């Protein structure tokens, strides 16, 4: 189940980079930052859409 080793996925990259973390920290930090930024942007997009599309939840 899930992606196999040659498939470039952020979670798989972070998982395989655990053994190299002390020597090559950037190998796991940059995919982690990409995941963080992606999730944050989707959350902000969802909040913005809710404010625009649902007038009952507007805060004054």
TrEMBL record:
Subcellular location: Cell membrane
Gene Ontology CC terms, in alphabetical order: plasma membrane
UniProt-recorded name of the protein: ABC transmembrane type-1 domain-containing protein
Stored PANTHER family: D,D-DIPEPTIDE TRANSPORT SYSTEM PERMEASE PROTEIN DDPC-RELATED, OLIGOPEPTIDE TRANSPORT SYSTEM PERMEASE PROTEIN APPC
Membrane topology: Multi-pass membrane protein
InterPro entries for the chain: BP-dependent_transpt_permease
Organism, scientific name: marine sediment metagenome
Keywords: Membrane, Transmembrane, Transmembrane helix, Transport
Entry's transmembrane regions: 25-46
